[in-house]
Amino acid sequence: MTVHNLYIFDRNGNCLFYSEWNRKKQAGISKDEEFKLMYGMLFSIRSFVSKMSPLDMKDGFLSFQTSKYRLHYYETPSGLKFVMNTDLSVSNARETLQHIYSNLYVEYIVKNPVCVLGHNLDSELFSSRLDAFIRALPYYSPRAA
Amino acid sequence: MSRQSNRTTDSKKMNSELFTLTYGALVTQLCKDYENDEEVNKQLDKMGYNIGVRLIEDFLARSSIGRCQDFRETADVIAKVAFKMYLGVTPSVTNWSPAGDEFSLILENNPLVDFVELPDNHNTLIYSNLLCGVLRGALEMVKSTLF
């Protein structure tokens, strides 16, 4: 049971934050390209999901899974996007991502006048609190399953 | 493994008089610095904008409200949830334009203007212009983008 990595994107597609805990395999492309790829994929899949939905859409795209990992997605109305890859034992990380938004992002970034929104989040406090929070999650363990 | 302790209530109460007097001191100082009502209005709007851009995130985090479906819902959320949460007052939503794209928020009692009397030589000063800036900044962050 583990969390692999976490991305935070803003409404313009800039990757504000990335951190990994348990990533065995890299993507083979530079980090910039990886962020662009991730954002592009999210944009397309959200558009696809809403177009093809047979019913009125409520939350839209939530997560996808492969045989090895699950990607969880949470977006705020202000366009902030949280993406977390975990292993398959985590079925719903929406609350976790909401917690990261309300109690970590808003508290340590938004309320900090020195942190410029829209750029890479360079708050030591945010990084360390986020790291501590992830490690304290019930489904986190240092070794991947 | 112990969970991190979360702050369960985030609303820090503050003395409303301190808030009102601080705002009054702010506007007074701006008037002294700029000596021109139009300029002061602009500055208040700018400051409000910077506040609004960040306030919206705090609002979304605390109220867990999703996207509004139409403009009327937006007006209701602003009046009944947002103003209530931050200023403790609920303005009334009135004066809808025929096209439904303009409305007025009327504040019966505005906490910013308690004890305040504007002298005659500041006729064009919009004292609570900070609030307009806050609304502008906040709404700009949640406007619908091309999908």
TrEMBL record, chain A:
Name a biological process GO annotation: endoplasmic reticulum to Golgi vesicle-mediated transport
Show which residues constitute the signal peptide: none
Classification via InterPro entries: Longin-like_dom_sf, TRAPPC
Compartment(s) = Endoplasmic reticulum; Golgi apparatus, cis-Golgi network
Q: Would you say which domain of life the source belongs to?
A: Eukaryota
Keyword list (alphabetical) reads: Endoplasmic reticulum, ER-Golgi transport, Golgi apparatus, Transport
Query: Subunit arrangement?
Result: Part of the multisubunit transport protein particle (TRAPP) complex. The heterodimer TRAPPC6B-TRAPPC3 interacts with TRAPPC1 likely providing a core for TRAPP complex formation.
Give the protein family: Belongs to the TRAPP small subunits family. BET5 subfamily.
| Protein's name according to its UniProt entry | Trafficking protein particle complex subunit
From TrEMBL, chain B:
- From which domain of life does this come? Eukaryota
Q: Which UniProt keywords apply?
A: Endoplasmic reticulum, ER-Golgi transport, Golgi apparatus, Lipoprotein, Palmitate, Transport
Spell out the InterPro entries in the cross-references: Bet3, NO_sig/Golgi_transp_ligand-bd, TRAPP_component
Q: Which Pfam families match?
A: TRAPP
Q: What are the annotated GO cellular component locations? A: endoplasmic reticulum; Golgi apparatus; TRAPP complex
**GO biological process: one example:** Golgi vesicle transport
Compartments, record wording = Endoplasmic reticulum; Golgi apparatus, cis-Golgi network
Q: What does this protein do?
A: May play a role in vesicular transport from endoplasmic reticulum to Golgi.
Family per UniProt?
Answer: Belongs to the TRAPP small subunits family. BET3 subfamily.
Assembly, in brief, is: Homodimer.
The molecule here is called Trafficking protein particle complex subunit
The species is: Scophthalmus maximus (Turbot)
